[in-house]
Amino acid sequence: MIQRTMHLKFLTILLFALCPLPLLCQEAKPQNAISKELEELFKADQAERDDAFLDQTPEKMGALIMRDARRRERVVQIVTKEVLSSAEDYYHAAMVLQHGDKPEDFLMAHELATVAAFKGHKQGPWLSASALDRFLQSIGRPQRFGTQFSRKDEAPWTQEPYDRSMNDSIRKEYGAHTLAEQAKHLEEMNSKKEQ
User: Fold this and answer.
1) First CA to last CA across the chain, in angstroms?
2) Of 99 and 51, the one with more pLDDT
3) Neighbour count for residue 144 (Cβ, 10 Å)
């Protein structure tokens, strides 16, 4: 009996040494399957954001919020398992998280997009800047890159709160528009609203 107990303890220790979290081992997928799943989550996220995105009924918007939440939950599970590998993996995960609803979503999106940029993803710098702007605004601070536009009800579109002290050369490094380009875009958005 003692020998059997010791044998069981040894197997348990060996199991935890090989896989500290058995659940993770059970759910392990090949890297290409993880990358494919992240790509599918990303594509589903982007497909929801077409030209009619801002004109949805409250019911459709509520359903979208639920689908977004499920996608974010899965992305967080994948990120937590530390199985992201390529620049695309980091970018796809970041984009899904950027469409979150709390500061932690935006901050994680910023961090993942920054890694995507370090790994050479061309859109990584812009997504890093955009996620940082969303994070800052979500905690009541002004955005820095000017990537976020919002409005309440029928009010004009705005970028406020916005700290415009950063210079345009830094904005360009991140793939963000210059202040002049942003002002023109804002004017166009508000002129369309009046038509």
Assistant:
1) 84
2) 99
3) 19
Predicted confidence (pLDDT) per residue in 145-174, tens digit: 999 999 888 899 999 999 999 999 999 999
Tokens of 65: 């919020």
Q: CA of 127: how far to CAs of 4, 27, 35, 143, 176, in Å?
A: 56, 29, 19, 14, 9
What digits encode the pLDDT tens for the residues 107-122?
Answer: 999 999 999 999 999 9
Q: For position 2, what pLDDT does the model report?
A: 54
Q: What is the DSSP string of the chain?
A: -HHHHHHHHHHHHHHHHH-SSHHHHHT---HHHHHHHHHHHHHHHHHT-STTGGG--HHHHHHHHHHHHHHHHHHHHHHHTT---SHHHHHHHHHHHHT-SSHHHHHHHHHHHHHHHHTT-TTHHHHHHHHHHHHHHHTT--BSS----B--TTSPPB--SB-TTS-HHHHHHTTPPPHHHHHHHHHHHHHHHH-
**Residue 155: both structure tokens together:** 């009010």
What is the separation of C-alpha 58 from the centre of its chain, rounded to a whole number of angstroms?
A: 23
Residue 50, pLDDT score: 72
Query: What pTM value is reported for the model?
Result: 0.79
Contact predicate 129/145, CB 8 Å: yes
